[in-house]
Amino acid sequence: MQDEATLALIEVHLRSNTNFRGAPASIDACKQQHIIRPAQQHLAYFKHTPPCRFDMVLMEDPEGNKVPWLKNAFDA
Which fold has domain 2-74? Predict the structure, then answer.
């Protein structure tokens, strides 16, 4: 998604059971690498890429009661 001059790469994450740390805590360093590596490979094909950031949309339950959008959730 393009947000002004920044390319936002968005991970949508659902945790239906918050007994296990909830959605934000589930994106640990290992999961971040699984998101970052394909993004780097994809962006390598372009000559000029805008500044990028990794956002997370966190759906805490299947009913969609809480949907926070964390901009710049982690760094690459």
Answer: Trna Endonuclease; Chain: A, domain 1 (3.40.1350)
Cα angle: 24, vertex 28, 30; to 5 degrees = 150
Residue 50 has phi, psi (to 5 degrees) of: -70, 170
d(CA 32, CA 76): 8
Digit-coded pLDDT (tens) for 31-41: 889 889 988 98
pTM score, whole prediction = 0.70
Within 8 A by CB and 6+ apart from 75, the residues are 54
Give the residue from 49, 56, 50 showing the smallest Cα distance to 74.
56
Q: Residue written as tokens 């390598």?
A: 44
